Structure formats: structure tokens, C-alpha cells
Amino acid sequence: MTISTPGVTLGVVGGGQLGRMLAEAAAPLGVDLVVTDPTEDPPAGPVASDALVGDFDEFSTIRAVAERADYLTFEIELTDPDALEQVAEETGVPVHPKPDTLRLIQDKLVQKRRLGDAGVPVPAFRQVDDEDDLLAAGEELGYPLMLKAREGGYDGRGNYPVESPDDVTDALDAIQGPAMAEEMIDFERELAVMGCLGADERDTFPVTETIHREEILRETVSPPRADEDVRERARSIALDVLDAMEGRGVYGIELFETSDGEILLNEIAPRPHNSGHWTIEGCHTSQFEQHVRAVTGRPLGTTERRGPTVSANVLGDVPDRQRATLSGEDAVFETPRAHLHWYGKREVYRLRKMGHVTLVGDGETMDELLADVRALRERLTFQSRSQ
Amino acid sequence: MTISTPGVTLGVVGGGQLGRMLAEAAAPLGVDLVVTDPTEDPPAGPVASDALVGDFDEFSTIRAVAERADYLTFEIELTDPDALEQVAEETGVPVHPKPDTLRLIQDKLVQKRRLGDAGVPVPAFRQVDDEDDLLAAGEELGYPLMLKAREGGYDGRGNYPVESPDDVTDALDAIQGPAMAEEMIDFERELAVMGCLGADERDTFPVTETIHREEILRETVSPPRADEDVRERARSIALDVLDAMEGRGVYGIELFETSDGEILLNEIAPRPHNSGHWTIEGCHTSQFEQHVRAVTGRPLGTTERRGPTVSANVLGDVPDRQRATLSGEDAVFETPRAHLHWYGKREVYRLRKMGHVTLVGDGETMDELLADVRALRERLTFQSRSQ
Q1: Residue A237, min C-alpha distance to chain B (Å)
Q2: How far is Cα A379 from Cα B2, in angstroms, rounded to an integer?
Q3: Which residue of A has its CA nearest to B33?
Q4: Using a CB-CB distance cutoff of 8 angstroms, which residues of chain A are in contact with residue B23?
Q5: Are B344 and B369 contacting, i.e. CB atoms less than 8 angstroms apart?
Q6: DSSP structure class, residue A206
Q7: pLDDT for B142-159, tens place per residue?
Q8: Which family, according to the similarity comment (chains A, B) (predicted)?
Q9: In the CATH scheme, what architecture does the domain B9-95 have?
Q10: A308-387 CATH, one of 3.30.470.20, 3.55.40.20, 3.30.70.360, 3.30.460.10
Q11: Are the Cβ atoms of B346 and A293 closer than 8 angstroms?
Q12: Which of A100, A122, A310, A385 is the residue whose CA sits 20 to 30 A from A243?
């Protein structure tokens, strides 16, 4: 290949924080981004060459992006695989990961079935189309269980815990549509692996511990506080997952380490993932650079960890949607080896992902490093100081 | 302070590679860039919020940038300190570094005088306005000596070596204008220190060895292959230089280590500098992030080195100005811990700075690491493969 200017343009469906961090990573490689997002001035806007306005699944906008791009990818699963496929066919612009893989992942039931069939350990699950199915699932999987919308959920949206047969009606009302029931996992900890598929190579970033509350990622810890054997098995399962994926790019693979030491697949995201943000400072190649390399047909970079690294999400801590003004951030600027990543969102609401803080270690234990990044994150608030 | 979106906008006079790398570093901090550059589609364009077209010293463009900015800085010395000063006064937008410091640095004679007076060791020099002055300089400093244009030179332009009194006429013809003569330094190696001035703090990045050919920087080596004592003295002199500077920001401070172990100031650049590009991967805070922090009034980041790091400039290797197409870059992508930085220039000509390659060490000696990055750089060419 070669590099020139104007050179390779990467079209991205979605212009949120993932698009923004993709653009930050793409520029040094001579790759420009054109994104499409439903909102004007999306997070990726200031660092992308251009941001078109259009829904994630709108054929005409996806096509308009492709017409300006050499490669097409997406940073959100809510895009339409049919539209991606048709645009790729009509324009000849390759799309990665493959629309078929996106389809597979979009339907959580299909995802679990296919990966289970491929030998990947998954929690026990059952298709749920009506109350009878859910009651049968309760018999089979026991209570509590997790009812999940088959499509469209993220950050805990679309998940409903079912404690007993009494919850069945409420649960189905909440989910509204095709669903699946999954055994509730008694986990020791959650792990995540960023997998990478290149043109003819596959790799994984180092296994990472993820900590959720209210089903939203709060912190990552890498290396995880888990045995070497657990990490090895997690990596091996991630490689098996990659074998079931089609198309170049990075994949966020979320896992449970159960209390009896089993590793089970939780979910897959066919894109850069919150659990891999620590790689920006923590690895020689970030997940964003890796995705740009992979999708544009470049060789993958090393996934070697540079050093122990933790991250903490900066989430909205105000009850109502309002203009976002973060204060306390000088605490981050004043801390050596702490890095602030602001996502460029104009408005904040409760638990909205507004940014993250990464802290690179310098001899601390992982417990200490996690406590340090949490303490830093606690200094940050969107609440008015006078409140 | 706080962070919001839209938030702090940094206006930058100049939209070249330094502006581009400033924009890459500014985005995670929630800082947008608006640049001004004489060319349409300058290197910083794709990652800046906006790029205005105008000469570096054009009052109206500088004013237009300031009107959209909260802070004003420059990434090229060719801007006009009077214009900066007037714009700052009229708009109330602070400019850093201070126009007075830019004036001081723009005139190499004034720079050397002021710093010499401040106790910074400088090479012997003499003002040269005519042939008599230059001949007198030859008597005083010996031959060969270096004749330097007092203003406007960079990357060796504006420097003329004078071997004997026979060269005097040619040298003055070449320089055309106010000049200074400087003793030719017999140096063991060249060193550079990126200094940083914050609101009420000063610091330096680790001392770096710089290797020039044809007066153009080719490689950097950090840590330098010099004694600890030499590094300590270089850092100490850099701190003295900073004391003579006014205004926040990073400063590139170029030094000679003479063959008898003396450290002498060569030149200062009041901006991020080629000798500091290695800090992007080599330090926890890059010189670009540091400059954004300093100019926008944030605390400085740690200047700690993460690991041994070398860089090699990718220079134009074609005789004539032409469309730039770099090949061989997959060698960089395939090398672990190697990082390509493409500057986004459309055209290449001989010795034009088109990008750089950084290589982070993994146990090699600095000699080996330097050889490795040179070998990688040798794989890169703008020459057509069929030539």
C-alpha cells in the first residue's frame, strides 16, 4: 500500500465517543474519518473531516458516507446490516466487520446459539416469545434469571431481572418483543478481551477485568486480579469467538468468571469497546489504532501491554438532562500518569458516558491503582458547585 | 476551571504538522483547535475544528482566529509579534508565549545577547551588517565560522558557512540582510531539551540527543548517549533559558555538547519542536498535550520518560516538488513498538518533513534502537517504485 494526502478515508456509521477516539488514532496514520450521526455536532465532529447528519440505519446517509470513503465501518450496533450490505455492493466500498456478523451479534439469541454451537461456553439460555416460554425458562434455569431483549439493548437497557414467576408479566411488558432468558450468573468477576481480526491474522489485547454497577461499566483493571490460568482460558475463549466472526476489526468480548472458576461468554460488540479504552495509554497500539489498521487492511499492531493500567468512566451524576459542565478535572490534570478523555457531549444526564480517566501504574498493586482512579473520578462532578 | 462542549477553543497561528499533532492531543482534553494557515487544506485541517486561510503575519486572519478562540498560540515563528500583541489587546484573548519572547527569539542576535547576558553559555558571536564586520568576525572567531541571517531562517535556511575571507562576499549575498557571525562549534553531539512554562511552574522533558544532517534534524535519541553529568547540566541550562522566556507553553531548546564537554545554547523555538516528537509515545505527557495544558492555563503534566525512545524524520527523497505518495510504510506497521506519524502534506520535495517514525525500546542499547529506526526509515520512499 501507500500513504498520501488526501489518502484513505474511513467512513464510520456513528459519531459518538468511539468515533472521536477512532479519529484521534487515525490521523497519525494518514487516515481521515467521515462519520454519520443523527445529531449535529456529534462527539467525533471536531476531529473528523466531516460529519453527516442521518440516522444510524438510514440507507441514504450510509451511502453518502460510503461514496466519500475507501472503507466503511460502524461504531454502534444500531446500524442496519442490510443497508451496509447493499451500500457495499452498490459502491464497491468494503465494510468491516461483515454485515452477517453484525446480524449475528444484534440478535442475542442467535449470538448465543451460534457461539454455543461453536463450542464457546455460554450461560444456559432459552428463547422467550411469551409467558409460557418465560415460565418454562424459570423452571429450567431457576430464579432469579435475566430476561434480555434479543435486539437493541445496551448498557443494561433491554435487560430485566426476573426474581420469581410473579415478575413474568412485568418483565415481558418491560422488554416488549422477542426475548431470551438467561441463567443469572453468580460471578467472581467480569472479564473482557478485545479481539482483533486482521486480513489474515488474529490476536487479542491482554485480558482485562471490568467492574459494572447498574449494568454499566465503571472501571477496568488490567492486568485483572485473576489467576494466570483464568486469563489464559479467557484469551483462548476469545480466540474461539473470533473464529466465529467475519470481517476485520476489533471485537469487544465480555466474559464472566463464575464463582466455580468457569469462564462463560456474556456478550460481544463488533467494534471498539469501553473495556478497551485503557489501551490508549496502556498498550503500544490502542484498540482504536488497531481497528483503523484492521479495517483499512494494514497489518495489526502489537497488543503488548506497556504497564498496569486502570480506567474509570466519568458518568452523568445529575438527575435531569442538562448542559454538561464538568468540574474538578484539575485533580486529574494534577495527577502524574492520569489521563482525561473528554467525549465532547453537550448534554449530560444520569449515567451518560461523558468521558473516562486512565491511570497508568508505577509500582502500586492493582487494588491501590483502582482505588486511586476511583478517588480521582470522585473528584469529578456535573453538579453545580453551589448546589 | 471546568470542561464543557463547546468548551475551550485554542487558536493557533500555523496549521502545519505541529498544529496537527496539537489537535490530536487537544481533543481528549476537550479543547478544539482553530488554525490559520496560508494554504487551503493544511496538515492540521482534518483534525482541527476549522482552518482559516491567511498568511502567518496577516492581522485580519489572526484577529479572526482570536475572535473564535479563548487562547491564542502559534506553531511557527514566522508570525508577527506586533499583530499578536494588538489582537490580544483588542480582543482580550491571551496569547502564549508572549509576543515579546517571540520578538526576542526571532532575532537570533538579540536572542544570543539576551541569553548570554542572563548567564546562559552561548557560542562566541558578533553582529554583522557589512563586509568589514564579517572580516572582523573572522579575525575574532576564526574560520570556518557560521554566518546566520538574524531573522527568518529555519531548518538550515538562512545559515551560510564561511570557510575563509574569500567567502565573505558570497556569504553576505546569500544571507541578504542583517546577520550575525557565530564561531563554528566542534561538537561531540547535539542535545535538545523541551522546556515547559506553566502558570506558575516550570519543568523540562528529559534531555534528548538530536542528530542533524544538512542542518536538518534526522533522528532523536532519548535518553541521549551522553554522561549523566552532561544531561544534568543541559537540563540546568534549559531551566535558565526558561527564566528568560515570558509566557506559558513549551520551548524547544537546542544545545551543543562541545568536544571539550561544554554545553552551549544553539537556538530556541517558542513552540513544540521536532526534537520533542518522541514524547508522544516516550513520555506520559506529550509535548503537544503539555503545550495545550500550559497555554490554556491547566496544570503541567509529568514529564517523566516511559521508556527509551528514538525517532527518525521521514523527509522528502525526490528532487522536484510533486504529489506525495509514500511507499514502504508497511514495514513500520509490521514492527512492534514502531509508530508512524503522517503529517498530511499533499506535496513532497527534497528534505521536506513529511512525517516521522518513533520506536520505543524493549531492552536494546540506544545504538541498536537508533540503527533499528534508521533501517525502518530507509524502507520508506516517495520515489516511484518503477524508477
Answers
A1: 25
A2: 12
A3: A46
A4: 27, 47
A5: no
A6: P
A7: 999 999 999 987 666 789
A8: Belongs to the PurK/PurT family.
A9: 3-Layer(aba) Sandwich (3.40)
A10: 3.30.470.20
A11: no
A12: A310
